[in-house]
Write a structure and sequence with these properties.
Length: 287
Amino acid sequence: MARTNFDQLLQAGCHFGHLKRKWNPAMAPYIYTERNGIHIIDLHKTVVKIDEAADALKQIAKSGKRILFVATKKQTKEIIAEKAESVGMPYVTERWPGGMLTNFPTIRKAVKKMANIDKLMADGTFANLSKRELLQVTRQRAKLEKNLGSISDLTRLPSALFVVDVMKEQIAVKEANRLGIPVFGIVDTNSDPKNIDFIIPANDDAKDSVEVILTACCAAINEGIEERKVEKADEKAAEAQAESDEEEAKPRRQARKPRKEAAEAPVAEEAAEAPAAEEAAAEETEK
């Protein structure tokens, strides 16, 4: 797996933190220095943390599990949607629906409702509705699509959460913590990293910064998905080979069976003749 490039992070502005007066002391280990009242993040540590997170994400994807991406910031919406879609993962870029993880069955009902509306529209059930009623249904469908369309294929709880700006998405982080779902997060100098399992210290406001980190992480996820495909193909090939070997072995076993029966026949005859000979010998003795 390709390692993260320090120069790319530097060019993307990943090292720019927040104003010194807004910092969170828990981020001190990841701060290199302070310039003009702004904290500078130690990119050497960022490189290490990105690689750690990428390795973990790769293993999750390789096991066939789902990772939910969360970023509701205006400047990061497009990039998170693009990167998540590129690896076939669900994402949330609109308002985080409260209880999305802790009350997941209710969210699934809303997603099913959206699917039911589509089905009824397709089979002509709504053809007899008035214009006003049809407009209400259409608006309801559009609202559901906006908030839940990107997670419509998420049939069970995700195995991990990837969050951009853990401070803004603190409700999502709390829900994941409550359920024991690991959280990967881009953490700026004003945020608290204590509830984040895989911390990526970096600028979470700049689009370029978020993009370069997501590119590295999604590349790792894609590698995991491809490795899973290869493993499945190898398993199918091994099963096919085993079936082929079994088919080839059948004629040989059937050919051996008559020979075995032929070899056992004289032995059976001798065994049958033995009692008769013993009886004849006994009769001669009596006489």
